[in-house]
Target: Probable purine permease
Amino acid sequence: MRQPLLMPELEDPPPKSLREKCGALLASARAALQAKPISHWILLTLSSLGILVAFPASSLLSRVYFSNGGTSKWIISWVAVAAWPIPALALIPTYILLKVSPTRPTLMLVISYIALGFLSAADNLMYAYGYAYLPASTASLLGSTSLIFSAFFGYLLVGNKITASVINAVVLITAAMAIIALDSDSDTYGGVTKAQYAMGFVWNVAGSALHGLIFALSELVFVKLLGRRSFHVVLEQQAAVSFFGFVFTSVGVVANNDFAGMGREARVFRGGERSYVSVLVWGALSFQLGVLGGTGVLFLASTVLAGVLNSIRVPLTSVAAVAILKDPMSGFKILSLVITFWGFGSYVYGNYPKGNKTSTSS
Model:
């Protein structure tokens, strides 16, 4: 049968009003909420708070330690792993609730965890030098360069793709760090020399590079040795790496005779011994709770949400450091902060899972 020469034109649907769009958004949000049990959203909220509250608190407390009289880089790096039992204890309810068994350790897996623990101890020590000589806001911004090194080492070791958005993020974050370096004269605390500032800057970036390497090596362990990535397996790795990091850091503290010096530090610490102990204890707890929160967000939601929360965490830490610790905040640092946030946004956008396009045949 012959088709008519002219087909009737389909009218475009009328544009939705703002009220209809809001209604559709609320309906979508309601459907998403109902799709998961309330316990899921409670855990996701707590995990998100771990990233947005615990990690910034850990950064600020590290700076408080040095600004109030603490001097040992080994002690503050030891604090980062001192609460390693937290992820280990979290494994117990995880095994019960998920009805899974502990991963059987092999020789190569144990060696991998020991190596990652050693690198983690070195990484924490490098970051400690950053917090010793840099404002917390600056150290937090420099820490964002770990994204660059994660992408680089992920490409070399794991074969992750380098997309245009990743390259854009790398360029933006590198530019932001260059701006901070050029503005060093207005970004120092009293009593910190230019040489110390430069040392803190270099060690902080080096720590970010090592952090990126650790991230890529951890992913390599999952790919080569474990063959899967589930919540309890990641938690096991975190507990094991933190434990070995604690062991290596404790050896360094003992060798440097810093445990013996803690009593002297506590006596001269601004606020007294109780304040000294509080800073160390809360610093240890907040760091591991932040790590636990990051693990939770990764598996309760997605890597995209984890990336979004991490991108929010950087300016949040900087603003908190300015408000609480009276960090210097020049126009250049604000510009660097904006560019860093832009870089994170580019990275998150590029890694957002694209929906599959479907085509219809006529």
Residues 95 and 101 are 6 Å apart (CA to CA). Residues 1-10, 355-362 have pLDDT under 50 and may be disordered.
